[in-house]
Design goal:
It is built from 8 helices and no strands. By secondary structure, the protein is mainly α. The chain starts with a helix and ends with a helix.
Length: about 190
């Protein structure tokens, strides 16, 4: 009877609580772990929000940002401005180019590197954006081909029959006999 009264009196709950406390030493509580992870994520996001919030900026910050954005256009218009300057004032251009020829090679290497970084970094970003757009278009290609087939079926059901000459990719088959034979071999 002692065992039954212990079980019915809550002894099993007490034993389970003790086992849970002992197990908690070796394996963390999943709920507490999630709570700590959530608190950590909230703290990190709060830090990012505070760091990247756009504080009210003064006229000096706006001026410096504007000057930073003028570098590439100034270089471009400077190089393009040389052409009309040479045509309009050839004697002055000859004097200027003779003076530039006196600069050491190290200076020209430095100027080349700086201009390469200014324009090369921009080109790199644009190339990466272009590659992303090409990948996006390629990912959408099967959906576009399926839409074209549905449109063909809806507009002219007679031409959309299974015996229509199409390649596996939904493109019309060429009139070239070699291409037609290759398509048949590929299945």
């Amino acid at each position: 009877m002692g065992l039954m009264s212990w079980v019915l009196g809550g002894g099993a709950k007490q034993a389970a609580a003790v086992v849970g406390q002992v197990a908690g030493v070796f394996k963390p509580n999943a709920g507490a772990l999630e709570t700590r992870g959530h608190a950590y994520n909230r703290a990190a996001l709060a830090q990012y929000i505070a760091e990247f919030a756009h504080p009210r900026r003064g006229w000096f910050d706006s001026l410096v940002d504007g000057l930073n954005r003028l570098v590439r256009p100034a270089i471009t218009f400077g190089f393009l401005g040389i052409l009309p300057a040479v045509v309009i004032w050839p004697e002055g251009a000859a004097i200027a180019f003779a003076a530039l020829a006196l600069l050491p090679a190290g200076y020209w290497a430095l100027v080349t590197v700086i201009i390469g970084f200014y324009f090369g970094g921009r080109m790199q970003l644009k190339a990466q954006d272009f590659q992303k757009s090409v990948r996006s278009a390629a990912d959408r290609a099967p959906e576009v081909i399926a839409n074209i087939k549905r449109l063909r079926t809806a507009l002219s059901p007679d031409e959309a029959a299974d015996d229509s000459p199409e390649l596996a990719h939904g493109l019309p088959q060429a009139e070239n006999a070699a291409v037609r034979d290759w398509a048949q071999v590929k299945g």
